[in-house]
Amino acid sequence: MFCPFCGNHFSQLACFCYSCGKCLDFLKEAPQMEDVIRCCIGYFNEGHSYNVIVDMMSFLHGVNISLRCLKTKLTEAGLYRRKEYSSTNAARNAIRLELCGPGQLFGYRTMWQVLRQKYNLRVKRDDVMALLRELNPRGCEKRARRRFIRRTYHSMGPNYMWHADGYDKLKPFGFAISGCIDGFSRKVLWLVSGPTNNNPSVIAHNFLTCVRHLGVVPMRLRTDCGTENGIMAAIQCTLRHQHADYYSGVSSHMYGSSTNNQRIESWWSIFRKGRSQFWMELFADLRDAGHFNGSREHQCLLRFCFSDVIQKDLDECRTLWNSHRIRPSTTASCPGGVPNELYYLPHRFGSRDCGFRIECTELDTFPESNQPTHSCGDMNMQEYLDFVMEHSHLQKPENWESASELYIHLKEIAQL
Fold first, then answer.
1. Domain limits at 55?
2. Whole-prediction pTM
3. Distance (Å, rounded) from C-alpha 24 to C-alpha 19?
4. Are residues 271 and 264 in contact, defined by beta-carbon separation less than 8 angstroms?
5. pLDDT digits (tens, 9 = 90+) for 46-90
6. Do 55 and 176 fall within a single domain?
7. Distance of CA 249 to CAs 127, 165, 352, 375, Å?
8. Are 136 and 104 contacting, i.e. CB atoms less than 8 angstroms apart?
9. What are the DSSP calls for 10-65, one per residue?
10. Per the domain annotation, does 198 fall within a domain?
11. CA nearest to 251, candidates 228, 222, 227
């Protein structure tokens, strides 16, 4: 490295320049150009515009990079918006691979985003539309028939209202999902699968993890009237009791019916069309084939085999949703755009962040709940299945096909 004051070379471990004696600690705190370029490439692959990438680097990373420098670095990396498209065969093969799983429920916009982010393919959306009509005509026909009319939703900005709820469509098979979405940006804050979503400690753990990660507590939190939300509601009110706004204290949490918690409920319908329908049909096929009878033992075994695969799919779903573009609607007061952009850069949409900054030390006062370390849901069965996996030299599944094979194989060994 070289001193910016005198130009002489110095060791990276030095705190002062050997020649001019200037303090060089600020150079160690500055981010390296390689890390800056890596962040810029990541935002580019997510589909953000050049101006938004510059804004993201300034607000989220504290790096001021000019628009011209950004375009130069991306060009040097071989990244372009409208040239050097990938081959049609590569796109067709990737679409066929996605159609073997939950991707069979995707529309052409979601499929185009998957090809761009997951497979690093540059293709035109019109080409993806044509390929989907060629490879999955039945799915295109089904999606064309469905239309939803939703009520108008009003929000002042990100972190004004968080909507938390549980998803029980996969509960008959042993998988309980907990989720939360920001009302203004539609950013999915957490999406977690586990043995239960009725345990208040589990829901509170998800809430505290999200607040600690974002460093902000919402102005308001809305949940159903279920007992599983009691601890989370108490934590929200405790964190907001010292504030002096209209919704401080106990007013910061609101109970309501599921039908009125429309932000998260409407997203669950999107989630079913794009993701969970695949798993419901897969597990129903196992049940119809006589491999699953709904008993507690079968649910534990199914969780043991599929928990990692389903959580990986949920993480992918959350990432894709938070970086996709929501079209503007004349019947909605919230603007259209990318959820991550709407959440982190509200000033670009004439809004403001309504949340309250919070330090991690304030969260340390809440005792950490004991989360289940076993995916099975039953400690004794977990130990038995781990023993069978180790002595039978079986590997953890990486996709739904290998998980199905492992489930059937372990079911025969355990004679369930």
1. 31-76
2. 0.78
3. 12
4. no
5. 888 899 999 999 998 888 889 998 888 888 887 887 787 889 999
6. no
7. 53, 21, 21, 36
8. yes
9. --TT-SB-TTT--B-HHHHHSPPHHHHHHHHHHHHHTT--HHHHHHHHHHHH----
10. yes
11. 222
